[in-house]
Design a protein that fits this description.
mainly alpha, about 100 residues
Amino acid sequence: AEGARAFSSYVALQIDRELNHPDEDVRKEAADEVALLTPIIKAFITDNGWIATSEAMQVYGGHGYIAEWGMEQYVRDARINMIYEGTNTVQSLDL
């Protein structure tokens, strides 16, 4: 989560440079970097979310699949995020 926050903050800074910097060359460079990093950051966050929730469910052992704890819903949500964010595998092929 800490790595995702740092990566997100960096891309947000580049978006600010793209939109607000007075130098046109800097804006263009930032726009190119944002275009490159956007699919990477989306995949990074969703993949790590899936891994984290899957491992968290292992803490419950066989009880992780019981709806009483709610952990299985987090795992399903993390898995569907990978699809909502543009199918990570397809984006990696583009890259």
